[in-house]
Amino acid sequence: MMAQSRRGLLRTLLTLGASLGLATIVLVASGLGIIDGPTLWRQATGHVKVESLQEGNQSRDFRVFRPASALKHPGLVIVLHGADASGLQIERQSGFDAQADRLGWIAVYPEGYADGWNPFGCCHHPGVDDVAFIADIIDKLTETDGIDATRVFVTGISRGGMMAYRLACELSSKLAAIAPVAGNMADAGGNANNVDCRPDRPVSVLAIHGSDDPEIPIGGGRSRVVVEEVSYAPLTDVIAWWRQLDGCASYSAVALDGFVTRTTWACSQHSEVATVVVSGAGHTWPGAPIANPPWGPAATLDASRTIADFFAAHPQAGAQ
Predict the structure, then answer these.
(1) What does DSSP assign to residue 113?
(2) Residues 143-171: pLDDT tens digits?
(3) Residue 39 confidence (pLDDT)
(4) Whole-number mean pLDDT of the chain?
(5) Please, are residues 10 and 42 in contact by the beta-carbon 8 Å criterion?
(6) Is residue 196 within 8 Å of residue 119, measured between CB atoms?
(7) For the whole model, what pTM was predicted?
(8) What are phi and psi of 49, to 5 degrees?
(9) 90 partner at 20 to 30 Å CA-CA among 19, 39, 120, 298?
(10) Helices (DSSP H) in the chain: which residue ranges?
(11) CB 103 within 8 A of CB 75
(12) What is the pLDDT of residues 214-246, one digit of tens each?
């Protein structure tokens, strides 16, 4: 229904073009593109499809974007929404369809159950197996679309970023890298080291976080704006744990670019752990239109492109 309504909107714009002129239509269409992101145009061409899987007693939906110029064996990026959000919302917010289009990969936006996902430390839904759901999506698209098994990745924001960490721990045989945005990995007490994480192979990690995030504080502790029984680990602890899991070097490379500080550790089997901290940014997907004012620090980083480039450079450990 959503794709059909957008195609109807574009047909209306084209009809108006005959009387209003091309320049006017371009202006209106550009405005819509800014509000809705690249998703509007790709849905209109029919490349976005809602598919479903039976997981236990539930039918679970996921949105799939397939670029017109997909590779014969495309990479797969799974993008997880935050709490109380949706696949459509994170597709619009991240604009990741544009990155999939650029690389010839497939992007998937699964729907969480009820208020979201089941990461470590909180928010569990009895009878719901999100890990199995994501694994089944990977298996299905590998069969139907010939996914490159060495290039399967997960990113996500907030609770979706928290879930990305869990998937890296429990689906390391299928995943090459993750990129949590404003996420965290900890037990119920906010301790990263107590998480039962035993990946079978190194999984590259790129963690993007705002220094002034009030919802999942970069220094750990409780949320400063949401009343909930959730504690978070300091990002430094989360990264230290992943550096240990991935067998990383003790030294790092640090790059500064305006508000953005990137710290990188080289790890075993050509894997990598990295953090990108945006000074002054809050709980957001940096670079997302509307959510980030153009004069703010979060607008200085295109998180989606940064993530896509990181994924492109980091196939599954041992596959290089």
Answers:
(1) B
(2) 999 999 999 999 999 999 999 999 999 99
(3) 56
(4) 88
(5) no
(6) no
(7) 0.87
(8) -135, 140
(9) 120
(10) 2-20, 22-36, 39-44, 87-94, 96-103, 130-145, 159-170, 235-245, 303-313
(11) yes
(12) 999 999 999 877 766 789 999 999 999 999 999
Strand partners for 59 = 54
SS3 content of the chain, % helix, strand, coil (to 5): 35, 20, 40
The CA distance from 231 to 100, in Å, is 34
Query: Contact 96/39 with Cβ under 8 angstroms?
Result: no
CATH of 53-313, one of 3.40.50.150, 3.30.300.30, 3.40.50.1820, 3.40.50.10490: 3.40.50.1820
Q: Which residues contact 30 (CB under 8 A, 6 or more apart)?
A: none
What's the Rg (C-alpha) of the chain?
19
Between CA 143 and CA 135 the distance in angstroms is 13
- Chain centroid to Cα 13, Å, comes to 32
If one counts every other C-beta atom within 10 angstroms of the C-beta of residue 6, the result is 19
Strands 253-257, 152-157: pairing kind: unpaired
- Sign for the pseudo-dihedral over CA of 292, 22, 67, 116: positive
Q: Scan for tokens 């190194």, then name that residue.
A: 202
Write b or e for each residue in 247-273: b if 16 or more Cβ atoms lie within 10 A of its Cβ, otherwise e: ebeeebeeeeeebbebbbbbbeebbbb
Tell whether the model's pLDDT for residue 108 goes beyond 90.
Answer: yes
Contact criterion met (CB below 8 Å) for 78 and 63 = no
Token reading at 255: 């790059």
* Whether the predicted pLDDT of 29 surpasses 50: no
* Short-list 213, 207, 233, CA closest to 225: 213
CA 168 to chain centre: 13
C-alpha span between 250 and 65 (Å, rounded) = 39
Distance CA 68, CA 104 (A): 8
**What is the C-alpha separation between 255 and 244, in angstroms, rounded?**
22
Q: Which two tokens stand for residue 82?
A: 């935050």
